[in-house]
Amino acid sequence: MDSSFDSPLLGVPVQNRESWWSRFSRCICCCNRRGVIYNKNNISWKPSHLWARIRDKLHGKRILDKTYTVLLDLYSHKSIEFSIKDCKLSPDGDSVIRDDLEFYIPQLCNFLLFGDSKEAENLLIIILDLCKKSFYFAHRVIWFLNSINFTELEHPIFDIEKLIDEIKFVYKDSRKICLGYSKRIENLLNDFDAYDKDMLIRETLDAIEDYRVNYKNCKIVGFITPQCIPLDPLFIKPKENSFYSTPLFFSSLFKISTNLGSKDSKESKLAFLHSELKSLNSLLPASVYLPFYNENLRNCCVLHIPLDEVHIYDTKESNTFRISIEVFCPYNEINVIERSRAGSFSLVSEISTCSNEIGNFEAREVIEHCKVKKTLTVVDEEKFQNRSFSMISEGVSMAYVQEENGNKYESICEQKEKVKGFSPFGNLKTWNLVNIIVKSGENLRQEQLAMQLITFFRQTFVEKKIHIWLRPYEIIPTHPNCGIIECVPDALSIHTLKSILPANKNSLLDYFYLKFNGPNSQSFKKAQKDFAESLAGYSLVCYILQIKDRHNQNILVDHLGHILHIDFGFMLGNSPGGNLNFESAPFKLTEEFEQLLGGRRSKLFNRYRRLCVEGFKALKDKAEQIIVMLEMMRTGSGSNLPCFLDGENVINEFRDRLIPKPNMNQSEYKKYVNSLIDESLGHWTTTCYDRFQYYMQGIIY
């Protein structure tokens, strides 16, 4: 696995400012574990008694889950050896609540590397033990460590290369070597040594002989273990293979993305990409999984990368491309086969290819959408006048196909149907297709932090039962200047939507009329409602996190009418143009958005206002937790992130936005949030920034 740290980060590190909130101490650490720990550490860190004071304050409010309590105990230098055993290690695929240790890996590892802890040796033992319990957790830790450019930071407590090497060796004691996690397979593996391993594998494969894939003589249908699908010729030992396969797979994608920058034309880039991915395909299928927390996805095994589905993004700053990956879920495959033999095969299994990608919390929406198989095609203005609303697409997606007769946009279900028809793995019952973005040339740790906070915002709204919609997606930095991003299915940028429609009918309202069957249909009213709920969520996100660079390529609309924001390279303390802070409105609220809500005096606009007030109050009630999450990342590995260039001022301003006034009553909340909405509505800097992006980048507004 590539563990080099020679790629520079964007931004310049600054010295952290001292204050009453953040007085720092220094630690001399004499302990050593296989030479992992340095003898001295000069990293500044908040004293433990300040963290303890925060912990006691939050603990008294009884608002903390077990994992967050353990995290604060750690930063307060309290022992977590026993309490951490009660914490959930990995997330539930069926839940939107993230109260697992994996969610807080950035905070855990930041303290492990830079915290002023006298218990560094014990913490290292705990982290290594967690890595042994789950290679999902171990891989996340390795990727986090790998993504930090330590040349711009003072020496951490640990020798990073030795630390990563030590984590890599956890496969020797790994308790989980199978991709398809379940009690049934876990129990089987626990008893694995009681059987002849080769016989067990043969018996398992013989039981599903009729369902084998007839492709390159592979034996991967149904029950998948590393022994069944070695990643030859890279490794010999199966458990070693199992642990290394996924990191090596994404390291290969990183190298491809990096080398892509040496190609001049788009044609040469595409030819190079096809050649490299073809070589990578020769190593597949393999025990490689997608590391997105959705349990339905990361328990799937990577089968193949269809070359015809590759797309290169035209960006100057980074080498970015999108690939589609065929996967299947080995454990579910067993269940499907058994139900099929028993005569109880369910339709639910047939549609799992759509429900798996987004997760159970959106499965119904996706399944409903799969019923529609129409296409949204670019039409010129003259042809547009002769078409009825019903002929415009019912579904749009991230998938983009260039055709001789124009530009075609296909839904995720259409893309799956097309690829599955040509795939040698298409007969697998749990076959699925997932789109991911590989991005190099930019550090994604800041975007990962933004997505962690957005995820926390979302679960706050869910806990408070507030009908505000947010769509977190996975951002995983794997190297200092590279990472992978989950594609949001069935969503297109506002810029793209406007480019599809004719010039005189390209407003969002026109698009909603066309897509949702006119202003009087129930589908249009439902889409309006979804738009309002998502607009409220992202209005709060953009204000509290100060998300900037909000042009129409960074704002998407999905197939149900939700709006969602992407690209969080400018947030908190940094903005485009060398921190000119030109986008001075609290958040982007254009007259076009107002028009889609029915005008500022409409019932729906009032509902939008009410949701913003309720959502802001809910986040204010969790303000201390949110601030602490951010404070934990401001120093150490986060000190050179662009969003923290202004040091502690970033935290102070963040606190002022979340808590503008202590002990606010409901009337004051309402007045404050409505003032933000009124100030944002049609703000002149928002309009000017959209015009600037249009003239400079061609982004339609």
From TrEMBL:
PI3K/PI4K catalytic domain span: 406-685
PROSITE patterns (alphabetical): PI3_4_KINASE_2, PI3_4_KINASE_3
One GO MF term attached to the UniProt entry: 1-phosphatidylinositol 4-kinase activity
Keywords: Kinase, Transferase
Gene3D superfamilies for this protein: Phosphatidylinositol 3-/4-kinase, catalytic domain, Phosphatidylinositol 3-kinase Catalytic Subunit, Chain A, domain 4
TM regions (residue ranges): none
Pfam family, one: PI3_PI4_kinase
Gene Ontology annotations of biological process type: phosphatidylinositol phosphate biosynthetic process; phosphatidylinositol-mediated signaling
One GO cellular component term noted in the UniProt record for this chain: cytoplasm
Enzyme Commission code(s) on record: 2.7.1.67
Catalytic activities: a 1,2-diacyl-sn-glycero-3-phospho-(1D-myo-inositol) + ATP = a 1,2-diacyl-sn-glycero-3-phospho-(1D-myo-inositol 4-phosphate) + ADP + H(+)
Protein name: 1-phosphatidylinositol 4-kinase
